């Protein structure tokens, strides 16, 4: 199918860092797409049809073929459009990128999810500790401007929550999880990442996220 | 480096289905390797050095470069040795293989881990239900001899626990989680998979696993 006939659609939600991963990956490739906003708690029938297993965003639909799960989608984008590679070409470096990318979901996002949603104070402290251990691993792993080297790669995209969401979430919750003193390299990385012209274009506005989390934690 | 100078080493444990994934993938590629058995609760310093993040098996070491996490390792094997592909070449089919492979770990292995290790009867029943829903998704997804088509692919390798471990575990625990009546397609698949000559060569013996789980659940 010729490139000008391609149809690329993203089903997303404003406040989802998982959706941002997909939009940033498409942005880095220079691919235009239609964006369909889904409503929390009131997902469309189309979304259910496209993602019957997890029933959640993001879903990428490329020429009528749906793909779910943000990291699976990002690898699909990298394999479908070859310009501006997101994964390195060397197999060992690819493996490391996948390893750290999975690490962020397994060890960081899980621990932080529990910090945000548990009511048990002891459990929360344990999860904060876990999340700090995970951030320290990432701090040690960062050896260049980006995890991907001079350019944004898979691990950077996966870590969008840490760069952009985390400072907002900790402000709303009155927590100190991530700052320049604790994690200086990661903090500098977050600034470079958030200010990258394509990332900046794809991220939701700080104000809209602040409003979203304030409403969420108030209720 | 010439192929006859390559050094491939696997750090494993007899009873680990995650290690089996790696050994089956290497077997399908026809790659010889040295196997180093690790002791549960008494891991070697070498393993700690190679996998400081998770401190667990499997670890693949290829020409002194370590890689951890079974699914990351299997993709590395597929990208390093091109013969007998484990993932399809079409990007959308690759995405589906990764999706279902991750599904097995997220939705099935997690639910089943809780079935085996919880003492709460209600919690166990909930997890059994979840694990059955996950198996039903896989039953519906199986459209050929293997998930990979005529040949074993990523999803088959990921599902080795279901094919070989699950019948043993349910026997030891007196549970009925997986059989021919509930999941006829998956059951036939499990027979084909376990009897594949390379899989058969790489799996631990049924007797050793039975003994392992009997000892484990007795204690």
From TrEMBL, chains A, B:
One of its GO terms (biological process) is glutathione metabolic process. It comes from the Eukaryota. The keyword Transferase applies. SUPFAM superfamilies: GST C-terminal domain-like (SSF47616), Thioredoxin-like (SSF52833). It comes from Trifolium pratense (Red clover). Keywords: Transferase. InterPro entries: Glutathione-S-Trfase_C-like, Glutathione-S-Trfase_C_sf, Glutathione_S-Trfase, Glutathione_S-Trfase_N, GST_C, GST_C_Tau, Omega/Tau-like, Thioredoxin-like_sf. The keyword Transferase applies. PANTHER family: GLUTATHIONE S-TRANSFERASE, GST, SUPERFAMILY, GST DOMAIN CONTAINING, GLUTATHIONE TRANSFERASE. Residues 90-217 form the GST C-terminal domain. It catalyses: RX + glutathione = an S-substituted glutathione + a halide anion + H(+). Its EC number is 2.5.1.18. Residues 6-85 form the GST N-terminal domain. Belongs to the GST superfamily. Pfam families: GST_C (PF00043), GST_N (PF02798). GO terms for cellular component: cytoplasm. This is glutathione transferase. GO terms for molecular function: glutathione transferase activity.
């Amino acid at each position: 199918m010729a490139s000008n006939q391609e149809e690329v659609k993203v089903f997303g939600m404003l406040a989802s860092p998982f959706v941002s991963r997909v939009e940033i990956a498409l942005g880095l490739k220079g691919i235009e797409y239609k964006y369909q906003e889904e409503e929390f708690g009131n997902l469309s029938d189309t979304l259910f049809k496209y993602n019957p297993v997890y029933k959640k965003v993001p879903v990428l639909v490329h020429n009528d073929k749906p793909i779910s799960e943000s990291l699976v989608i990002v690898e699909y984008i990298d394999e479908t459009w070859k310009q501006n590679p997101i994964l390195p070409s060397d197999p060992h470096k690819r493996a490391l990128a996948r390893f750290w990318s999975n690490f962020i979901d397994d060890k960081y996002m899980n621990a932080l999810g529990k910090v945000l949603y548990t009511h048990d104070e002891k459990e929360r402290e344990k999860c904060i500790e876990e999340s700090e251990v995970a951030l320290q691993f990432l701090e040690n792993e960062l050896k260049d401007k980006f995890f991907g080297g001079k350019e944004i790669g898979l691990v950077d995209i996966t870590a969008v929550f840490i760069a952009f969401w985390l400072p907002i979430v900790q402000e709303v919750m009155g927590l100190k999880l991530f700052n320049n003193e604790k994690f200086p390299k990661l903090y500098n990385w977050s600034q470079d990442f958030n200010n990258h012209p394509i990332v900046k274009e794809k991220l939701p506005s700080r104000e809209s996220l602040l409003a979203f989390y304030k409403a969420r934690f108030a209720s």
